[in-house]
Design brief:
Number of strands: 0
CATH class: Mainly Alpha
Radius of gyration: 17 Å
Strand content: under 5%
CATH topology: Four Helix Bundle (Hemerythrin (Met), subunit A)
Helix content: 40-55%
CATH architecture: Up-down Bundle
Structural class: mainly alpha
Shape: globular
Oligomer: single chain
């Protein structure tokens, strides 16, 4: 996807296009890096590029499942929470990117199957501290939240990537998309 989302007139398509753009921005941060580089924690935080891609896909999986089932239990992970932010033994960047792509396809299908983006979802239950019980969201809110969540982590990934090899989001995007070289003179 190019640097800007193309003009769209349909709200659903706009939300999905901006969601896709942020997924791409996050994925592009890994372009051309090795598994060791995408696993590197190159800043003072514990975050790494591969872990951010994986975390964003896991969050998207939980929210798209919630859109279908209205079960806030999907937000309570039985796995080690920290493993959602890193490659685990035997896992590669390709695995995480493939998981994220499959999740993206699933989310888009779920969103296309929703009749009313403004319809209230059943109220949440009080299972985790970051999701207050009794809150009734709309599918529109969920999509906007996913855009915001992924945009935040794409920014984290940009900083990590730049600290690894100096590449910025625009140079990485240009390389990933095969843009022609530009004379900056």
């Amino acid at each position: 996807m190019p640097g800007l989302v193309p003009p769209v007139t349909d709200e659903r398509e706009a939300l999905l296009a901006f969601r896709s753009q942020q997924r791409d921005a996050l994925r592009y941060a890994a372009h051309g890096l090795t598994d060791a580089q995408v696993s590197a924690r190159s800043t003072v935080s514990e975050l790494c590029v591969a872990g951010l891609i994986k975390h964003a896909a896991l969050v998207e999986q939980a929210w798209s499942t919630f859109l279908v089932t209205a079960d806030t239990g999907v937000f309570v992970s039985q796995d080690d929470w920290a493993d959602g932010f890193r490659l685990v033994r035997g896992e590669t960047l390709d695995d995480v990117v493939a998981f994220a792509a499959e999740q993206a396809r699933h989310t888009e299908k779920v969103v296309h199957d929703i009749d009313d983006l403004g319809g209230l979802l059943p109220p949440t239950t009080d299972l985790v501290p970051w999701i207050p019980g009794g809150t009734a969201w709309t599918p529109r809110w969920v999509l906007l939240h996913l855009i915001e969540e992924t945009a935040r982590h794409a920014g984290h990934a940009d900083i990590i990537r730049e600290s690894i090899d100096g590449a910025t989001c625009w140079t990485v995007m240009a390389a990933a998309e095969g843009w022609p070289e530009q004379d900056r003179g």
